[in-house]
Amino acid sequence: MMGTFTGRHMAATMVGGFGIVIAVNFYMASLATSGFGGVVVENSYVASQKYNGWLAEARQQEATGWDASVSRRADGLVVVTAVGAPEDITVTATARRPLGKREVRDLSFTRSLDGSFISTQPLDADRWTLRVMLADEAHKRIVETRIP
Asked: Which of 89, 113, 116, 129 is deepest in the core (most CB within 10 A)?
């Protein structure tokens, strides 16, 4: 014959059930916060006041007609091929990891014989988001891309 189900059994069942739910919630929250690298803007009001200026700057950059194709070689060096840009441009980039550990690297480039630009230091074989800036004396163009 089975024993009787008492209030103590019910309390233990409730505490155990809610304990599991709370533990899973804390675990999931820790995973969510560790994968986010920070805020998008420091102050949303200030960002809203600058928004029209950012749009004008983006239209000005688009008007240059410049673009860039970005790839990573097997040795980890990043190759930027400028499309439609003049010969005297300089290329710089900032690489950041989109997920996981927060790492940001500034990359500098040298021009190769075929006209493309090759980074002076390699990137690890992880995912990266690159913000590439092509610039001459009068214009600049920023291209954002991801490389796997």
From this structure: 89
